[in-house]
Amino acid sequence: MRIGVLGAGQLGRMLALAGYPLANTFVFYDLSGSPSVGLGEIIIDREQIYLDDFLSRVDRVTYEFEHLPVAVAERIAAVKPVHPTPRSLQICQNREAEKTLFGELGIPTPEWRMAESADSLRAAAESLGCPVVAKSNTEGYDGKGQAVLRSPEEAIQAWANIGHKRLMVEKFVEFSRELSVIAVRGEDGQVAVYPMAENVHHEGILRYSIAPAPGLSPDITAEAKRYIHTLLNELNYVGVLTLELFDTAEGLVANEMAPRVHNSGHWTIEGAVTSQFENHIRAVSGQPLGDTSPRGVSCMVNIIGEHGQTRRILELPYAHLHLYGKAERPGRKLGHVNILADNYEELVWRVRNCAEFLPGSPEFSSSLTQGLKSGMADPTYRL
Ligand code: AMP
User: How far apart are CA 107 and CA 88, in angstroms?
Assistant: First the structure.
């Protein structure tokens, strides 16, 4: 099948790498003018004049980037099947629509208000009770366009710093850790869910994902599965969907979702029987879904800003290096390393070893290291 991908970054690259063995071909349609995919045919079209040409070369269309105009997705949907649906894209681009949908489907969220001025931001902070997190309603990613307000008096400064006309203001959630659940739905409605990952961020950027997330109770796992199933069915979704969650004393609280393969699912390339990329391609091309079971325990370590000592990483027998062919720049995602182990103790040791070769990597601190530090010999910490 000829698959068209909107966007041409590393996610598109990994989709193609997973799709070629199944005899798919790929054409990338890039609106940004700076594709980094590095393989397949790329159509760069800032003025959107080559869309028909792109569509004539593909059978199905998907995307690897959700900040593209919904109108483009709708234009495409009138001509060729687009997965996921333009409605999913529209909801994921707009925090208000997203949190409203979560509420309608019974998925818990932080308490929230909308603000359209510094005054209404202040009023929202007062009524919710500080601290609160203010976020641009649209166009936010990797923690950009956000501010934490410790008191309502900070509203004027925060409003000016964020510089957007419409903000979502959320009550600050006291979470013990961040989790994500990734699932895939096929054209026939079949759903497969990956084990949840525990995600460690540093300066707003994902650094480590551990999967399966250690120490998950069956109740929490069932809760996450229920939420993602409900979303997939409601959106009549085909492909991979990611839901980011906070783990709190009261249970899971949803943060946001992404209508695509996700950085917190990169561990699945070697760490699961079928990767999130292959499963997305299988779903989009109408094929049966693959097994989402883990192979041992994994940690994905992002390579940010600088490549580091890649030769040394390649010498580690348990590390799988993935480079995206991008130039170094502060804060830029250049690649990742998937580390596999038979148990979490061994995993922590291996991740620390690998991080030595990645300058600027924050110390590997997670529920796992905290658990190990305090000598918590929880049997669920071993497979
Ligand atoms: P987001 O862009 O919504 O994913 O937010 C980026 C990061 O900010 C999240 O990964 C959290 O670490 C943090 N964050 C976002 N919303 C909240 C919240 N309501 N309470 C506490 N931390 C938050």
Answer: 16
CA of 170 to the centre of ligand 1 (A): 9
Q: How far is the CA of 142 from the centre of ligand 1 (A)?
A: 9
Q: Report how far Cα 17 is from the mean position of its chain's Cα atoms.
A: 19
Q: Are residues 251 and 147 in the same domain?
A: no
Structure confidence by residue, pLDDT tens digits, 95-118: 999 999 999 999 999 999 999 999
Q: Is residue 187 one of the residues assigned to a domain?
A: yes
CA atoms within 13 A on the CB side of 155: 19
pTM strictly above 0.85: yes
The alpha carbon of 255 and the centre of ligand 1 are apart by a number of angstroms equal to 7
Same domain, 236 and 289: yes
Q: Which two tokens stand for residue 109?
A: 């969220």
374, pLDDT greater than 70: no
Which CATH number do you get for residue 10? 3.40.50.20
Indicate if ligand 1 lies below 6 Å from the C-beta of 176: no
| pLDDT at 376 (0 to 100) | 38
Q: Does one domain contain both 34 and 138? A: no
| pLDDT (mean) for 228-252 | 97
Give the pLDDT confidence of 290-299 residue by residue, as tens digits: 999 999 999 9
> Measuring from atom 8 of ligand 1, which residue has the nearest CA?
143
- Ligand 1 probe mutation, 133, 146, 172, 199, most atoms within 8 A of CB: 133
Alpha carbon of 143 to ligand 1 centroid (Å): 7
Does ligand 1 come within 6 angstroms of the Cβ of 133?
yes
Residue 102 near residue 143 (C-beta atoms within 8 A): no
pLDDT-based confidence at residue 34 (cuts at 50, 70, 90): confident
Q: Which residues contact 88 (CB under 8 A, 6 or more apart)?
A: 235, 237, 241, 259
Check if 10 has its Cβ closer than 6 Å to any atom of ligand 1: no
* Residue 166 located in a structural domain: yes
Q: What is the rounded distance in angstroms from the CA atom of residue 307 to the CA atom of residue 360?
A: 10
Range of the domain at 149: 111-171
